[in-house]
């Protein structure tokens, strides 16, 4: 008598899922750039805000000058790190949460079972488009800051290595939180109304649009619970002079805490996604 042992998907199935996922990334990218409001609110929004803030506050002088008059940065340079962090928030949480909620409530995810596309390929497509759009947005934002406002970018390899782990940990965290948040909207029509206010409030209290020490202490404590405040602080450690760490609530960059908080929220996003993600909306 011959016993059959199920060892799971073979190499051919895994290769097929990967190749389908790569094709799904292409489809997702084409769909992404065909929707004007999505491109504006998740791709061009940080660049537009940098142009507004950099121009509006250009006459106020430099921020963080030392007693000898050196070491200051322009308002555009000061705002840029927070907008880099906000770009990851928009690409990961806002875009994914709205997009997945819409696809679920419109029945697209339910119909996925009747197509050759596997769930693995579906998530490869979503993660891939999030990573690619975040990288493109970052490149445009840095280029715009350098060309339009003469913002000096870091030249030390250590700064770019720090940026690399902040970017990768940040985009992974925001991606998982976006998948988790997609379970909240009850319909495709309510997805934007549910997600966008959350994203906007987080940006206002997390040091993106306002220096966080300008906020009341109780609001600073609330912001410290969420990952955007720490991601923006980490990005300031990359793009701003070291002496500007004194302007942070703790008087330092706290990179260890930044990594711990982002990693904790990554785990929260993963657990909540596993517990709440559904291929079709519950009645």
Explained architecture:
Helices cover 70% and strands 0% of the residues. It is built from ten helices and no strands. The protein has helices at residues 11-33, 36-56, 75-105, 108-111, 119-149, 157-181, 188-205, 217-225, 227-239, 255-276. Helix 9 runs antiparallel to helix 10. The radius of gyration is 21 Å and the shape is elongated.
Itemize the secondary structure elements and their pairings.
Blueprint: H1 11-33, H2 36-56, H3 75-105, H4 108-111, H5 119-149, H6 157-181, H7 188-205, H8 217-225, H9 227-239, H10 255-276
Helix pairs in contact: 1-5, 2-3, 2-5, 3-5, 3-6, 3-7, 3-9, 6-9, 6-10, 9-10
Mean pLDDT: 88
Residue fraction in strands: under 5%
Care to count the β-strands? Answer: 0
Radius of gyration: 21 Å
Judging from the principal axes of the Cα atoms, what is the shape?
elongated
Instruction: Give me the strand/helix succession.
Output: HHHHHHHHHH
Helical residue percent band: 55-70%
Number of helices: 10
In angstroms, what separates the terminal alpha carbons? 47 Å
Secondary-structure class = mainly alpha
Strand count, sense and barrel status of the largest sheet are:
none
Task: Give the low-pLDDT segments.
Answer: 1-8
């Amino acid at each position: 008598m011959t016993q059959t042992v199920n060892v799971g998907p073979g190499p051919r199935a895994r290769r097929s899922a990967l190749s389908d996922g790569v094709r799904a990334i292409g489809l997702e990218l084409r769909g992404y750039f065909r929707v004007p409001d999505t491109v504006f609110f998740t791709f061009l929004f940080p660049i537009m805000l940098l142009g507004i803030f950099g121009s509006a506050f250009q006459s106020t002088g430099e921020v963080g000058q030392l007693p000898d008059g050196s070491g200051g940065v322009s308002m555009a340079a000061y705002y840029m790190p927070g907008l880099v962090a906000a770009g990851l928030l928009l690409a990961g949480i806002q875009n994914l949460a709205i997009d997945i909620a819409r696809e679920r409530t419109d029945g697209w995810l339910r119909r996925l079972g009747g197509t050759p596309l596997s769930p693995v390929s579906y998530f490869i497509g979503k993660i891939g488009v999030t990573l690619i759009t975040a990288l493109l947005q970052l490149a445009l934002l840095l280029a715009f800051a350098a060309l339009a406002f003469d913002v000096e970018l870091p030249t030390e390899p250590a700064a770019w290595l720090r940026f690399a782990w902040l970017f990768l940990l940040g985009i992974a965290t925001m991606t998982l939180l976006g998948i988790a948040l997609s379970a909240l909207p009850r319909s495709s029509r309510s997805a934007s109304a549910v997600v966008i206010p959350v994203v906007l409030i987080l940006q206002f209290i997390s040091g993106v649009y306002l220096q966080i020490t300008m906020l009341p202490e109780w609001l600073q404590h609330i912001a410290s619970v969420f990952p955007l405040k720490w991601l923006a602080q980490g990005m300031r450690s990359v793009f701003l002079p070291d002496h500007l760490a004194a302007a942070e609530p703790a008087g330092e960059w706290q990179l260890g805490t930044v990594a711990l908080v982002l990693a904790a929220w990554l785990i929260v996003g993963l657990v909540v996604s596993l517990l709440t993600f559904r291929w079709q909306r519950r009645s």
